[in-house]
Amino acid sequence: MKTREEKLALSAFPLFLVKGSRTVWYNRHGTSCGSAKRSPVRQLTEKEKRKHDDQNRRFDPA
Predict the structure, then answer these.
(1) Which of 28, 24, 59, 23 is nearest to 40 (CA)?
(2) Where on the tree of life does the source sit, at the highest rank (predicted)?
């Protein structure tokens, strides 16, 4: 269990540097880092997409 969380934490950092707040949202909400890497928005279900768009509005008011 610990090693899995350490792995997630480690993979979160480079992603965070590359993609910024959008990727933080994925990791914070526990979706896999792998799916965050592959075109995040298209991989989501409709429900998740709505949640994701709502979250992005906080980062990008425009």
Answers:
(1) 23
(2) Bacteria
d(CA 45, CA 3): 29
Q: Buried (b) or exposed (e) across 10-37, using 16+ Cβ within 10 A? A: ebbeebeeeeeebbbbbbeeebebeebe
Half-sphere exposure of 60 (CA within 13 A, CB side): 8
Give the residue extent of every domain in the chain: 2-59
> pLDDT digit string (tens) for 26-60?
455 555 555 445 444 555 567 776 776 776 666 65
- Tokens of residue 22, six digits: 């959008």
- Provide the 10 A C-beta neighbour count for residue 49: 14
Report the pLDDT value the prediction gives residue 36, as an integer from 0 to 100: 46
